[in-house]
TrEMBL record:
Gene Ontology terms, MF aspect: oxidoreductase activity
Domain of life the protein comes from: Bacteria
Name the UniProt record assigns to this protein: SDR family NAD(P)-dependent oxidoreductase
GO cellular component: membrane
Record key words, sorted: Oxidoreductase
Organism: Denitratimonas tolerans
Entries under InterPro entries matching the protein: NAD(P)-bd_dom_sf, Sc_DH/Rdtase_CS, SDR_fam
Length: 261
């Protein structure tokens, strides 16, 4: 029995939601919240034991049985994403949403001292992978009456500053990708949003702010409900770029002007 059986129409009932970085802070939180809201979640990540733990936890909580899709985005090529889209089509016959939470930040470094390999991997995981994955899944998403793709962004002003390296560059480019894709899909059933959570307790945050007291930061789960609301399309007037506030949505159109930041 699903966790929400008995409740009136859980917001994501029967929807299939693919979450990347599903064993990370935000990804895991969105997976839990989506599953609790009635979704079939597909958990994409590269750490199978952690994904399996989450799978078992959700199943034990009475959610719909999640799927695990092990994938290392740094080595994935376009055909791998086609295989993923086909696997979802075969298993569920539909895809209603994607939440791009996977991100790589090895640490802060000047561009001068950055190992070149980290440049290529950073751009690949943070920009090219979400592009390829979304592109491969567009035909499936188009089949739905309502579908949604969420890209996790980061503070545009902070990440345009020194030492944010390929992570900062990729997150800015991802903002551009959101704009272009949303424009192209304006008359389609697919809603596209860039979502910007505030600082939260996670491995990624700790790699950039290693001296801060992480206990003062919100848990990623504080931002998960807002993502579920966007996936469900509860607020059709939600802007393209949404700044997430803990436990609520406070829409603020960031616009392309923030590139200058
Ligand atoms: N934390 C913050 O304060 C903050 C603020 C603003 C925006 N964000 C954004 O929020 C999103 C989630 O971040 P988070 O804080 O939850 O970070 P996190 O806990 O470090 O999660 C990142 C996830 O990405 C996965 N990942 C990294 N490289 C991968 C690869 N090559 N293949 C597959 N998966 C890979 C990680 O897997 P592994 O566990 O295997 O490494 C992890 O599951 C990111 O897009 C981030 O930019 C975070």
């Amino acid at each position: 029995m699903a966790a929400n059986d008995g409740a009136a129409s859980p917001p994501l009932a029967n929807r299939v939601i693919l979450i990347t970085g599903a064993n990370g802070g935000l990804g895991e939180a969105v997976a839990r919240a989506s599953a609790a809201a009635g979704a079939n979640v597909v958990l994409l990540g590269r750490r199978v034991p952690r994904l399996t733990r989450l799978h078992d936890e959700l199943e034990a909580a009475g959610c719909r049985t999640p799927s695990i899709y092990p994938m290392d985005l740094s080595g994935a090529v376009p055909e791998d994403y086609d295989v993923l889209a086909r696997a979802i089509a075969d298993e569920y016959g539909r895809l209603d949403g994607i939440v791009h939470c996977a991100a790589e930040l090895k640490g802060l470094s000047s561009l001068q001292n950055l190992p070149l390999e980290d440049w290529f991997t950073g751009l690949h995981v943070n920009l090219t992978a979400p592009f390829l994955l979304t592109r491969a899944c567009l035909p499936l998403l188009r089949e739905r009456e309502d579908a949604c793709v969420l890209f996790a962004l980061d503070d545009a002003q902070r990440t345009a500053r020194a030492f944010w390296g390929p992570y900062g560059v990729a997150k800015h480019a991802l903002r551009g990708l959101v704009s272009i894709l949303a424009d192209e899909l304006e008359n389609s059933p697919i809603r596209v949003h860039g979502v910007e959570p505030g600082p939260m307790r996670s491995a990624l945050r700790a790699r950039a702010f290693f001296a801060e007291d992480a206990s003062t930061l919100p848990d990623p789960s504080a931002y998960a409900r807002a993502c579920v609301q966007l996936l469900a399309g509860t607020d059709r007037a939600a802007p393209r770029f949404v700044t997430l506030q803990p436990h609520s949505i406070a829409p603020r159109s960031l616009g392309l002007a923030t590139f200058a930041g």
